[in-house]
């Protein structure tokens, strides 16, 4: 299970160095609508052709467009389309039924992972493409924005310093779980859901520990504490 994790370590590190977001509101042009139709159809070709230009070209041909309607030198246009589409679909109407933000986070992670599930046997290849230096920061921003969306939907109201940290940690938890899922052969990905539950529990325990952390600024550097210290002769 470690192979995917080592190969995608660059993306997981980049999650801590980017604050980019991908949420923009705009009206698509006719060209963008055609592009969206082709890329949507190309997703049905992934399990046969992978995250490749061939999948995009075949989709265009199926829809009676020229194969070069969506120019692609690799699978990144299709991967990016999937990431945006999955982000927009990561929601639950009954979130209010969950008692705590962390319960909502757990549920939202499952919803998002279920969207990757149909392509999971080829998702490792998608990660390899996202790891390329010219795409790494953009890919990291997609996962970072996913974490932002989840915390916002959970109703979390942390202060700014906690907000940034919690987004980065959740993004890392999600990426690690998705990489685990790439090689999970258990029934209905049961081991992945167990891994996710344990990772979120660990994340929550760490957050509690940070909230209880003592104030270490009790004395000037180089001075002994006012009490409780041991004198030496």
How would you describe the overall organization of this protein?
It is a single chain. By secondary structure, this protein is mainly α. It has helices at residues 2-7, 9-14, 30-42, 46-49, 53-62, 76-89, 101-116, 120-130, 133-154, 160-182, 190-211. The radius of gyration is 22 Å and the shape is globular. The relative contact order is 0.14.
Strand portion: under 5%
Enumerate how many helices there are, as a single number: 11
Q: What general form does the structure show? A: globular
Major sheet characteristics: none
The SSE string, one letter per element, is HHHHHHHHHHH
Number of strands: 0
Report the uncertain regions: 19-24, 212-233
What is the mean predicted local confidence, pLDDT?
A: 83
* Radius of gyration over all CA atoms, rounded: 22 Å
Whole-Å distance between the termini?
A: 55 Å
Helix content: 55-70%
Structural class: mainly alpha
List keywords for this structure.
single chain, 233 residues, mainly alpha, 0% strand, globular, disordered C terminus
């Amino acid at each position: 299970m470690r192979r995917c994790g080592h190969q995608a370590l660059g993306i997981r590190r980049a999650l801590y160095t980017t604050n980019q977001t991908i949420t923009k509101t705009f009206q698509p042009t006719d060209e963008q609508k055609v592009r969206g139709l082709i890329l949507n159809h190309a997703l049905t070709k992934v399990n046969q052709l992978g995250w490749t230009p061939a999948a995009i070209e075949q989709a265009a041909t199926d829809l009676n467009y020229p194969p070069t309607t969506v120019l692609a030198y690799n699978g990144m246009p299709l991967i990016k389309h999937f990431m945006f589409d999955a982000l927009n679909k990561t929601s639950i109407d009954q979130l209010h039924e969950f008692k705590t933000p962390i319960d909502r986070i757990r549920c939202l992670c499952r919803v998002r992972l279920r969207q990757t599930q149909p392509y999971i046997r080829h998702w490792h290849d998608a990660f390899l493409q996202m790891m390329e230096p010219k795409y790494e920061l953009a890919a990291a921003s997609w996962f970072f924005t996913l974490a932002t969306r989840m915390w916002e939907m959970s109703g979390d109201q942390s202060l700014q310093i906690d907000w940034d940290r919690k987004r980065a940690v959740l993004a890392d938890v999600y990426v690690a779980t998705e990489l685990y899922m790439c090689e999970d052969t258990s029934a209905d990905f049961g081991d992945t859901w167990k891994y996710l539950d344990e990772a979120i529990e660990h994340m929550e325990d760490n957050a509690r520990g940070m909230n209880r952390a003592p104030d270490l600024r009790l004395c000037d550097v180089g001075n002994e504490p006012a009490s409780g210290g041991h004198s030496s002769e």
